[in-house]
Amino acid sequence: MTELYEKLYLKIKSIMNTWCEEGIYAISFFVHPNESYEYKGFSNVSSFAVSYNTEYDCEGADRFSEERWNYAFWRQDETLVIDPDDPNELIDLLFDWYEEQGIVNIGEEDENCYDEDCNYIGKGPVGHYELLQLVSEVAKRLQQEGFLEDKFGKKLPIIIHGLEYAWYDIEATKIANINGEADTFLEAMKLLGMV
Which residues contact residue 110 at a Cβ distance below 8 angstroms, ignoring those fewer than 6 apart? Predict the structure, then answer.
């Protein structure tokens, strides 16, 4: 794998190793483009942050409830891993990786990203989908190695998402949770009509 992949993997493990709160039931990998994020002259660059939610935070909400699974209800006390507004080695590596992959016009979005019913069908701004795929591979490795189970004493889902749980967020979450860790989340999204 690439240097970026390895550095992301090590950074995420390092962050998670500091978590010691009781009742963690889900991990958030929040990958979000924002038109105000700008880096090296490109705007609409994606950031990446990690966090979690606890049973206490969702006040014991039903296992399929929106309060349990929609990030809008979470505490959102995330740790930024890639932050275009506060450049570090990882954002530099991301842009090097984009160049190596032949990804250009970072942040631009296809004007045909909606279907005739105004449903979003695009892949987000250029570079966003590719970052999601990379992040999902890192998450999958954490699941394959049993890192979360060893750290927290149980299997936990890693939810990869933006603000609206687009089709590609669901795809990335499925890729990451290879042993069905996110099945309850995925079922909740269907029941709530969010996917």
Answer: 122, 123
Asked if residue 18 lies in contact with residue 9, where contact means CB atoms within 8 angstroms, the answer is: no
**How far is Cα 21 from Cα 77, in angstroms, rounded to an integer?**
13
Pairing of strands 38-39, 46-54: unpaired
Rounded CA-CA distance 84/33 in Å is 10
Task: Give the separation between CA 71 and CA 159, rounded to whole angstroms.
Answer: 9
From CA 83, how far away is CA 128, in angstroms rounded? 13
- What residues contact 120, with CB distance under 8 A and at least 6 apart? 113, 114, 164, 166, 167
pTM of the prediction?
0.93
CA 107 to the chain's CA centroid: 17
| Contacting residues for 53 by C-beta, under 8 A, at least 6 apart | 24, 25, 26, 28, 68, 74, 75
Nearest to 27 by CA among 119, 147, 191: 147
Residue 98 belongs to what H/E stretch?
helix 89-100
Q: What tens digit of pLDDT does each residue of 111-156 get?
A: 776 677 766 677 888 899 999 999 999 999 999 999 999 999 999 9
Which amino acid, 2? T
